[in-house]
Target: Molybdopterin-dependent oxidoreductase
Amino acid sequence: MSQEVKSTCCYCGVGCGVLIRAEGGVITSVRGDPEHPANLGRLCTKGASLHLTAGTANRLVHPALRPARGEPAQGVAWDDALEHASERFAQIIRTHGPDAVAFYISGQLMTEDYYVFNKLAKGLIGTNNVDTNSRLCMSSAVAGYKQTLGADAPPSCYDDIDQAGVILIAGANPAIAHPIVFRRIEDARVANPDLKVIVVDPRRTESAAIADLHLPIKPGSDIALFNGMLHVMIGEGLIDETYIAEHTEGFAEQAAIVAEYTPMRVAELCGIPASDIVRAARWFATRGPALSLYCQGLNQSAHGTHNNAALIQLHLACGQIGKAGAGPFSLTGQPNAMGGREVGGLANLLSAHRDLANPQHRAEVAALWGIPEVPAKPGKAAVDLFKALASGEIKAVWIACTNPAQSLPHQAAVRAGLANAEFVVLQECFADTDTAAYADLLLPATGWGEKHGTVTNSERRITRVQAAVPPTGEARHDWQIVVDFARRLGRKLDHAAVDRLFPYASVEEIFNEHRASTAGRDLDITGLSYALLEQQGPQQWPFPQGATAGRARLYADGRFPTANGRARFVSVQHQATAEQADKTYPLSLLSGRMRDQWHGMSRTGIVPRLFNLEDEPLLQMHPCDMRHRQLEDGDLVRLFNRRGEIVVRVAAGSGLVRGRTWLPMHWGNRFMNGAGANALLGDAVDPWSQQPELKHTTVEVAKSGLEYPLAVIRRCTDLDDALRQLELARSLFDEFPYATASLYGRASPLVVFRAATAAPMPAALLQTIDATFGLTGDTGAIVFSDARRHIAKKAVALDGQLLGVRLAGETQALNWLRQAMAEGELDASLLRFALAPTAAPPASLAPRQIVCKCADVSDDQIISAVAGGADLAALQDTLKCGTFCGGCMPDIKRLLTRQPQQHPEAA
Ligand SMILES: Nc1nc2c(c(=O)[nH]1)N[C@H]1C(S)=C(S)[C@@H](COP(=O)(O)OP(=O)(O)OC[C@H]3O[C@@H](n4cnc5c(=O)[nH]c(N)nc54)[C@H](O)[C@@H]3O)O[C@H]1N2
Ligand SMILES: Nc1nc2c(c(=O)[nH]1)N[C@H]1C(S)=C(S)[C@@H](COP(=O)(O)OP(=O)(O)OC[C@H]3O[C@@H](n4cnc5c(=O)[nH]c(N)nc54)[C@H](O)[C@@H]3O)O[C@H]1N2
Ligand code: SF4
Ligand SMILES: [Mo]
Model:
């Protein structure tokens, strides 16, 4: 029996609804939920391939305890695991006090999971040391909203995109990071040719490609830009004086500051033409409704809170808030970062948008929970939390649903903290993240498709998530693990109220308690229930008791949740980045996302085709900066600064200004022999939000001297085989100063291993490599070697198909070979081509043109489907081409009409 279950995509904060189909307890397919308001049936490449991540590959299937660091973890029963954990925590708390333990959790948990973690720390143990990866993500957005508007609430909704007259995208690349929102922007442009799109980003991104105006400002100079725009607006009489007078305070002070931000001065600070600043200001103020969309380019900064405030102030100055099509709309990164904020899951927050610093709020939460008090001392925010592990101030940490050994900046320090901790618990779905190596106890959590609860997306919309299949192995729901642990710990600590604090028999009971805590708060959801969410679909908050619908937009009446009801201008000034380019480190390093990968790739990294765009971390650099260092496209380089060094391949970036470089954040030790971008990034934090400056550091780049390249492509029978080969490839990392491993593939999955050395690779090493990938045999093998040039290549066939290729000394054929093998093209008769020293394939093997980059569909596939009678609808249904961004539709239509002439034999 197969049935569809309603859930959400577990990736970004757009919060798309999905329908999961499962058969016999196994997820077989996923499609966009046509009824979900966030996506109306659409999904991006990551969402559409979710079912491919739902297998059991690499899953953590039972609890495991490490006898000693460095030794393999061994399976234990749940009872023993939780007894052990509660005993260790109890002992540390008894000896060193509650602040000697900490929880580091995630915006990818369900609201209910988050709620019980928060209650465990603040309500049972009595420590505020519960922080999350939202500290790396949304905490400047939270602080920015609270400083200016009085509450952590995005006032806008997705419908505003359709109604805006001007959209300002600042420090966000939604084409890549929020693709379904971007589709909506593209649709809005088609519907309204007058719509103006302004993109503020130091790089010319995929999102900037559709902009009417791109402002490639210097990294970190957003405040200067926004102050400059306000200067122009004031000077040209474009502000809304009535709105300012009736609904805001602090304008005069900010106006005095921006008097100095003339377009000429701002042009200097931002490195863009003064006329563009004037144009942006005029468009924003006069072509409204004005909507701004922003994300990590503003948040991940040592002055991230003020970046947010400076932008929000433009909306206040022009009255562009609280009405259709207008407002400062912070895009949420993770799928449920909002839910985490709602339950107060940060070291300085309390349930239902309450503040830890506020005694009244603390008393309210204590009363709700029926305990004498919640602790007043603020907990440690992420960066400090890991520093406290290194210093020994915090001795035990419980990590859930995040991978700090990759995602926190200054990895050397973070890993030192993890290594120094007395006890590290990791609650994960996958067994092999970089953090797992540091865990003393690993606890298996249910993952996407297995979980249940609620999540809140960027537009404050709560969706009920249902499980489609039972848990994998012995995995348990995150909330269940916490509740079980809490009860055991409470008993060990003789906590009188433990059973009353954690009475839950179902996830719904947790939701109902959270709901009650929101009564009378800005996010009041007392009118919601699981039943209502299931029957009437996802709802926006607030949704108080008696309401029949949630509120689409906030602040329509111009009243703000501040003490006097007025929004605030908070006097913001330009500030430089925490680190500035100098002679030693003259280049800026920016980091962020790629379309098809999610963070540390624990899930997207098991879907071969999600590597087809890029299967290696590429450092984008301006051609002049490359020439200056005698670098050519494709060279391996040392990328380094005072904190660390990694070796990566350099690519001439088309969208970069000189002096700026760009590296994806996705690679860590699992896919390369280095910690990735965060080996280099610094941990300077914003004073209000404690969010680190993950968007910028300074570096130098130099030739690596690794002149001897190696590449292995290995065809695999299926995904399990591929993951096994990938593990084997990883076992070779330590042999090389440069090494990466990835999947790749369409019909047949491949593993691609690359490495390089400074001296020719000895024959023994090549033998080890061949043995690792099962390429030792002589039958079906051909070899080519040129000892003088240190070239040694081998191709091995099995059952008439190319099984694998090892290229050493020269790897020019890698790219076309990889594609041909991925399509299952290379039969044994073509073996000799595999060893050809050519970057272009032989004519008979011209690789297929990929027509639809989103669904990864080639012209060949389309041509043969059309020959088989497929029309456009059938192509979209079976191959999924043209169903994502739609950019390939003209090509598909061309193939549909031209096909008979081109392939007369097929007609
Ligand atoms: N494919 C994919 N999508 C994702 C994710 C993923 O891992 N993969 N992760 C999700 C999460 S958790 C998040 S937080 C979001 C992040 O979503 P975004 O913030 O949109 O994505 P990023 O690539 O991190 O950074 C956005 C842009 O900020 C620019 N930038 C850097 N410095 C500055 C600056 O000083 N000023 C300005 N104005 N811009 C600057 C960068 O050049 C980059 O293009 O994406 C979400 N969506
Ligand atoms: N240099 C640089 N660093 C960055 C950023 C950047 O732009 N540049 N961006 C930052 C941002 S915005 C973010 S949000 C962070 C993200 O950083 P992380 O949170 O470290 O990223 P993920 O890889 O998503 O980690 C989530 C982990 O949870 C596991 N998991 C998935 N579902 C579940 C579940 O239901 N339960 C449990 N228990 N585990 C689960 C996954 O397998 C995965 O390993 O990275 C930050 N780091
Ligand atoms: S836009 Fe975000 S939520 Fe929607 S399918 Fe893509 S990754 Fe998932
Ligand atoms: Mo994020």
Q: What stands out?
A: The chain has six domains: 2-53, 64-138+336-540, 139-330, 587-703, 708-835, 850-902.
